[in-house]
């Protein structure tokens, strides 16, 4: 056929269905087509579909995802607009998410294809386009930035900053997170939400899976801002939000959202508090097997006190979370910035230790955090992972507010001291003296042990020399 690339035509004929899928995929450049034909013709590369696909993955001409799609005869859709799909990241109620690359600039991005049922008519399409213009204004380190949005035929997509790392929802699968980490993450998310609210954008679906932890930047970023508007029922349709159709994820909805009332930024802050509660305890604030009952509970009642699960959580932390979970919006923090300030007030950095090491570092799973909770007028010198009985017996990640002695340890040491909110200066001084005396006692016993080992070694050495 006139205008066809000879190299592409010969590959199509030589490789059959796989060659046809390569053509449909449209991800190879003209130079690669020429090189591919030469390598296959010369026998340097195999001509059978699976072997050739494997070689192309090895040479990084294809990703594993692309190769699998082509071998399955599903190469169509590997190029969307100006972007080449590299891998599938996940999917959800909003659509499918892919790791993609801009064909000209080479930038790696996250590309979300919006579910067709969400773009149901011209009014919704118009609302989507209007919201994307607002999202383009967002520029904040705690917000996943949107680079592009477009329509290809009947498919709508949005191109976002690719964040290497995990969502807090993925982290939660390993068990509840340490309270101090959750507070820091939430304070960052609140800043991102505050910035979005200033631009007139509500999230409407704040949940752990929409809070991304950036492994590169060591911060939390809010994902999917602006897309919540697509989940709203069109007011011109026959059924409406006020008639019982609530939008969002039930376990994180605000009371006004569950009631179908008008929303503002304070609704997102309530949802953020639900996230904190869930991330700390492993449970949602309202417990019931029936989702509709859980929905009604957040309208009619208060959540289960978080101290039912985390008995030693400091009262200042409880107060901040309770305020964010207030039933009435006017009783909550009035902005994301105000909420972030309250959360940050619970945290303060450690000073450098005696050896000069920097203790202000990112927490590791199973290790103490470099950020500590400010409890009353005291600073905890170290946070250790402790557990809530109701958070699961084998949970490897625990919220840590007090320190306890390791099992099987003899004698008293600093881990035996439980720092409480009602400690006074005299209590702390007396506790410090106890630790000092315990340290002296343990030091004498260690010295005796070392002396005995040295004496045994000397006698053995002497007897060995005498026996020669």
Total individual domains: 4
Proportion of residues in helical segments: 25-40%
Radius of gyration: 30 Å
> For this structure, what is the CATH class of the largest domain?
Mainly Alpha
Report on the structure:
This protein has four domains: 1-76, no CATH class; 82-162, 2-Layer Sandwich (Phosphorylase Kinase, domain 1), CATH 3.30.200; 166-349, Transferase(Phosphotransferase) domain 1 (Transferase(Phosphotransferase), domain 1), CATH 1.10.510; 405-468. The termini are far apart. Helix 1 (6-15) packs across helix 2, helix 8 packs antiparallel against helix 10 and helix 8 (179-198) runs antiparallel to helix 13. The chain has helices spanning 6-15, 17-25, 30-41, 49-58, 64-71, 122-135, 168-172, 179-198, 255-258, 265-281, 291-300, 315-324, 336-344, 425-466; strands spanning 79-80, 83-91, 95-102, 108-114, 146-152, 155-161, 165-167, 211-214, 219-222, 347-349, 371-375, 378-379. It has a six-stranded antiparallel beta sheet, covered by helices on one side. Strands 7-8-9 form a three-stranded antiparallel beta sheet. It has 468 residues and is an alpha+beta fold. Strand 11 and strand 12 (378-379) form a beta hairpin. The model is unreliable at 233-246, 350-372 and 374-468 (pLDDT under 50).
What labels would you give this structure?
single chain; 468 residues; alpha+beta; Phosphorylase Kinase, domain 1; Transferase(Phosphotransferase), domain 1; 4 domains; six-stranded antiparallel sheet; three-stranded antiparallel sheet; 14 helices; 13% strand; elongated; disordered C terminus
């Amino acid at each position: 056929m006139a205008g066809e690339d000879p190299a592409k035509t010969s590959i199509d004929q030589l490789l059959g269905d796989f060659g046809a899928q390569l053509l449909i995929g449209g991800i190879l450049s003209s130079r690669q087509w020429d090189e591919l034909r030469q390598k296959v013709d010369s026998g340097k590369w195999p001509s059978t579909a699976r072997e050739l696909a494997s070689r192309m993955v090895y040479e990084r001409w294809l990703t594993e995802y692309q190769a699998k799609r082509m071998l399955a005869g599903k190469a169509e859709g590997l190029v969307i607009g100006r972007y080449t799909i590299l891998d599938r990241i996940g999917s959800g109620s909003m659509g499918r998410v892919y790791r993609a690359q801009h064909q000209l600039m080479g930038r790696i991005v996250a590309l979300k294809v919006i579910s067709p049922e969400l773009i149901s008519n011209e009014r919704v399409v118009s609302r989507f386009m209007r919201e994307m213009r607002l999202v383009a204004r967002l520029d904040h380190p705690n917000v996943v930035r949107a680079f592009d949005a477009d329509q290809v035929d009947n498919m709508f997509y949005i191109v976002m900053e690719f964040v290497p790392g995990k969502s807090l929802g993925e982290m939660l699968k390993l068990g509840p997170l340490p309270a101090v980490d959750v507070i820091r993450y939430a304070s960052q998310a609140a800043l991102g939400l505050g910035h979005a609210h200033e631009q007139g954008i509500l999230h409407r679906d704040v949940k752990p899976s929409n809070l991304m932890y950036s492994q590169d930047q060591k911060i939390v970023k809010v994902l999917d801002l602006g897309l919540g508007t697509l989940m709203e029922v069109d007011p011109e349709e026959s059924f409406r939000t006020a008639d019982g159709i609530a939008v969002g994820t039930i376990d994180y909805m605000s009371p006004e959202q569950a009631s179908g009332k008008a929303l503002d930024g304070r609704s997102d802050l309530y949802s953020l508090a639900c996230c904190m509660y869930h991330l700390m305890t492993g449970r949602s604030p309202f417990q019931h097997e029936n989702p509709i009952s859980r929905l009604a509970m957040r309208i009619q009642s208060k959540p289960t006190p978080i101290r039912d699960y985390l008995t030693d959580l400091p009262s200042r932390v409880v107060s901040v979370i309770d305020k964010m979970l207030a039933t009435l919006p006017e009783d909550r923090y009035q902005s994301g910035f105000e909420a972030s300030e309250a959360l940050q007030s619970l945290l303060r950095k450690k000073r450098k230790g005696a050896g000069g090491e920097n203790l202000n570092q990112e927490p590791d799973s199973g290790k103490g955090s470099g950020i500590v909770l400010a409890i009353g007028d005291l600073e905890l010198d170290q946070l250790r992972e402790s557990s809530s009985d109701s958070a699961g017996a084998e949970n490897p990640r625990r919220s840590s507010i007090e320190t306890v002695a390791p099992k099987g340890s003899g004698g008293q040491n600093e881990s035996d001291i439980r720092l409480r909110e009602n400690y006074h200066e005299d209590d702390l001084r007396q506790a410090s003296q106890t630790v000092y005396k315990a340290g002296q006692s343990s030091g004498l016993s260690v010295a005796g042990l070392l002396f005995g080992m040295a004496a045994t070694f000397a006698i053995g050495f002497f007897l060995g020399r005498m026996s020669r």
